[in-house]
Write a structure and sequence with these properties.
about 40% helix; alpha+beta; Glutaredoxin; globular
């Protein structure tokens, strides 16, 4: 089983995206950042996940769960659960949503 990275879909100018990046860095969490303004397929995926809205940050976890515009507390809670799962299992399970994420943005 391979480890999938956390994926954060956002924009370079978004203050909530910058805040989420700071939380990830604070907790030494590796993630992929996909700029939806530079990748039309990623923008379409974010709209699909968010019922037609380009809400950012949209954060996809390896377990398939999604956080959209989370507060610091919401993100930190999820990151704690993520790191506990990763540590308990040694490897984070592959995202159930990975099949619906276009290959170019995986």
């Amino acid at each position: 089983m391979t480890s999938e990275p956390i994926r954060m879909f956002g924009t370079r100018w978004c203050p909530d995206c910058a805040r989420a990046k700071q939380v990830m860095s604070k907790h030494n969490i590796q993630y992929s950042f996909i700029d939806i303004e530079q990748d039309d397929e990623a923008g379409a995926y974010v709209e699909k996940v968010n019922q037609g809205n380009k809400s950012v940050p949209t954060i996809i976890f390896p377990d398939g769960s999604v956080l959209v515009e989370p507060s610091d507390a919401e993100l930190e809670k999820k990151l704690m659960a993520y790191t506990e799962t990763k540590n308990d299992q040694g490897v984070v399970s592959k995202a159930s949503l990975s099949g619906s994420i276009p290959p170019s943005i995986r």
